[in-house]
Amino acid sequence: MELEEVIYEKSEGIATITINKPEKYNAFGARTVQELIYSFRDAWDDNRVGVVILTGLGIKHFVQVEIKKIVIAEVMERMAG
To answer: How far is residue 81's CA from residue 64's CA, in Å, rounded to a whole number?
Structure first.
């Protein structure tokens, strides 16, 4: 997947996922969520990754969003399947 709204990097067991929409206060849209899920799945599948850092560019890192629900839904889906 080509990432447009997320920067995803891995180094020395750490995956860093950065939302790259500072002009919109890193607001989540459908594309952002797809890219986040892709990045989290890749980190989950990589046995070398032990830590995931989620951040955003700009002064305000995130608009208010229920990140927990996104992560919990992904974990539940993975556990079920």
So the answer is: 30
* Closest CA relative to residue 8, chosen from 52, 47, 50: 52
Could you give the CA distance from residue 33 to residue 44 in angstroms, rounded to a whole number? 16
Q: Where are the alpha helices (DSSP H) in the chain?
A: 30-45, 67-80
Token pair for 69: 């629900």
pLDDT at 74: 72
Task: Please state, in angstroms and as integers, the Cα–Cα distance from residue 18 to each residue in 21, 25, 52, 72, 80, following that order.
Answer: 9, 12, 11, 19, 28
Q: Are 18 and 7 in contact (CB under 8 A)?
A: yes
pLDDT in tens, 16-70: 999 998 888 788 888 998 999 999 999 999 999 999 999 888 876 665 555 656 6
